[in-house]
Request: fold
Amino acid sequence: MEYTRLGRSGLSVSRLVLGTMNFGMKASEEDSHKIMDAARGHGVNFFDTANVYGRVHGDGVTEEIIGRWFAQGGGRRDDTVLATKVYMRVGDGPNDGGLSALHIRREVEKSLKRLGTDHIDLYQMHHIDRSTPWEEIWEAFGVLRQQGKVLYFGSSNFAGWNIAQAQEAARTRHFLGLVSEQSIYNLMSRWAELEVLPAARHYGVGVIPWSPLHGGMLSGVVRKNREGVAERSGTGQWAETFEQHRAALEEYEKLAADLGEDPAHVGLAWLLAQDGVTGPIIGPRTLEQLEGSLRALEITLDDGTLAKLDELFPPPGLNGPKPAPEAYAW
Reply:
């Protein structure tokens, strides 16, 4: 396993992040525990979850599954850099969502109880809260750090402007601020390159891409459709997106075949090659999917392959692979 620092912090994390959204949803608790054991065995030490994952069965179900895995002992908790989130609504009350000091205090206590731990390593804002001032958010987070309940803080789904707001507000309090930003980022969704990645690099914030295979589009969907084994429906927005990008996806899968690699592993390897990316979040439902994802760590894409991928999935903007404003202005 390869490790890197999480942003500008001194925390070392694996370059693949185990996403747990499927735990309790598409993976049983028994299978989820097996996946976590296998991930740990391969050196994956960075686990990502959220207080609302598993909500079909009730908020916090996924955290509870992880907590029961920790309870088995054997160093499981000590070996894990544990990340969870706060923001999403968890009830119908007026304070049952957002980033108010009240909601943060309530939810961190619930997450700690479900996870069976005395601290969270990385506490992430699941979304920007435009109605809560940064002074309140950082004050609430500062209390959690003083209490030893949270060590580091991160964001998710922030714009570059939001990252700047957060960091400048933290600076006035002499806080470390954000160490990570969890953003949608993959070959088919490259908007983060305009503002988010430049802001993150400037402020020393590690980027953790979610949906690294764009909902399975980059996992060999053309072949899977041809063989009748595609998991997604052939209707609705997913089907529209597939048809819109069919030609590029066909060429992408040919490129992967020429490399002798699975398309999914090429997509992950591309993310690992991007400046500022800490590691993509993989969300395996089975042990086989976890084992396969590890192959991405062994793939090195040469300049010619990277250029071809830029041709197939062009970066946003009018002037090539550049950050804003050069991407759309002089």
